[in-house]
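Why do we care about 3D structure at all? Because function follows from shape, and shape follows, mostly, from sequence. That is the central idea of this module. The next example makes it concrete: a single protein chain, its amino acid sequence, and then its structure expressed as tokens.
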Amino acid sequence: MHDIRLLRDQLDHLREGMRRRGKLEELAPVLDRAETLERERRTAITELEAQQARRNKVTQEVAQRRKAGDDAAELIAEGRAIGETIAGLEARRQEAEAAVQRMLYELPNITLPEVPEGDESNNRIVSSWGTPRTDGESLTAHWDKGAELGILDLARGAKVSGSGFIVYRGAGAKLVRALMNMMLDLHTTEHGYEECWVPVVVNRTTMTGTGQLPKFEDDMYALNEEGMFLIPTAEVPVTNLYRDEILELSDLPRGLCAYSPCFRREAGSAGKDTRGLLRVHQFDKVELVRYATPETSRDELERLTREAETVLERLELPYRRLLLAAGDTGFSSAMTYDLEVYAPAVGKWLEVSSCSVFTDFQARRANIRYRPAPGEKPRFVHTLNGSALAFSRIIASIMEHHQQADGTVRIPAALQPYYGRATL
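And the structure:
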């Protein structure tokens, strides 16, 4: 959420941020209405302060008359009238403030200056690692290879839950567990993260704090009677662990990681890359979350992204890093790197991680602050997160990129201690 002062002092900056995302035409009415409401709110506050001062003066005059034994009925009546005026002004202020807050929830974050403007066609490849296989036509697609090896049961997943739900069996289930343990061990022992095991069902306030609500409620799996939601990523509960709290400067930067299943309806995505493991409604992921000061958050994004890349290198999967253009950057993000691996049999680059810095956008919604020094006014932290990594597309890429001539799939050396074998 944006600082309300942007509507008052930097409206042109806010409009420019929406333009760079390609959203200005769509959001111009929201900005105009929010600006009007903010003026009404400030006017109500000014009038309220004037009436409160007048009431205080009347109250003092009433006390003086009573002390002198004089009639104060007229002043008492005036005081009551002022009280009614104050109540009306306070209602106006609260109504305008609530409306402004609702509108601020509709506005995406402003991207950092280095983010290219425009849509996804302006995404920029920043770096790459490894050499993708070029013999994809001779390889078996992961959905067929998984069925052949008996590790994917797509038909029974669909029978049990519906399209987009996967059953891993035998060696496939063990592969999921091995990936989870490898990633968590890497991030906790080498990268310094504190591991968390968090709920996968959260309340509306928690979902609002990280930006999923109210904008993207249709994409979420909801438990409507309870007012709860299945998490789309561990980012949601982990970031909210410090909601409404004040951290000390010595606490920052702080890194937390968590494994969780993730649930996404992805409304409107039907028919897009739905075969095999490319687009599913439930998937597994290890998530990294960082809290930082405003001065260090940009460097922290580089650190976090590099930590996600390390996982791909340990899994020996060629990848590339993309800097997303403003129009392709997520709603809450100020800057995002996507990491993509190549699935040679499918012939596509697959996004397996998004690493983002949110500046104070999430922290304002969740009220997460830190104290720069003893006695100083608290400031909002900067939050970051990234997948390190999402399993389903990693498994697809492993089954295709590490496919061998004898029909087996080689397990990367770094994963073998967790898996216990050299091949699938």
